Amino acid sequence: MIRNVLFCLLLPSAAWSASPQELEQLHAALQTDELMAILSEEGIEQGEELQSEMFPGRGGIGWAATIEQIYAPERLRTVFREAFDDALVQDDISPLLDFYSGEPGALIAKLEVEARRAIMAEDVEEAARSAYTRIVGEESPRVELLDQFAEINDLIDRNVAGALNSNLAFYRGLGSGDGFEMTEDQMLRDVWEQEPEIREDTTGWIFGYMTFAYEALSDDELRTYVEMTATDAGRDLNRALFAGFDAVFLDVSYALGAATAQFSVGEDL
Description:
- It is a single chain.
- With 269 residues, the protein is an all-alpha fold.
- It has helices at 2-10, 20-30, 32-54, 60-70, 73-88, 94-101, 105-118, 122-137, 141-152, 155-175, 184-193, 195-213, 219-229, 232-265.
- It has one domain.
- It starts with a helix and ends with a helix.
- Mean pLDDT is 91; it is low at 1-14.
């Protein structure tokens, strides 16, 4: 009897594993496909800016085609889902499905995606940052809720780390081609020197984004969301989201660096 009990305990428990169907439901609830489409549009625009900085007047249709391939929504979707699903597959995600299938969860997911698309526009981003500055000056109780949300989910440090790692991946991509002479130590030093500027910009962007995204929520609805993210399921989701986005940004950053190296020394295509 004891042997059988121990044997059962050593087996993986299906009761605590997320099924493919449940993961698909969660992706639909969070609208992750739409998020990947937004990242694709944003990345293609940034790719055009990179061309102007690194090899202005060159690149031609070859660069445009390369950037579209790197930032293809389906490619981003595949990379994101693999990392996201791997991070959650052993967890019980039923509390997340319950939350996002009702209110305020469904509304929150909708607002977050809409805000993520809207804030791509420079004027909207500036307005969002200004709105946060305003509510801080007004000593609004909303500020404390946003602070709690950012702290529970470690939004600043994780996003800063992600940005630094992405920049390092870009340098490594550059180093895969000819004509880029920079040691790993030099890359690390250069990337780390960017940390204060990245942290300042990241902090402003995150609090501006949250102010804008959650403006339509009542304080009670936002508090409910903050409390959900502090649960085990909420922390699991946050971990999975960062795993997915980090995987995407590392992948595209390296590919972008490698492409930049190629086009910087090659001919227009």
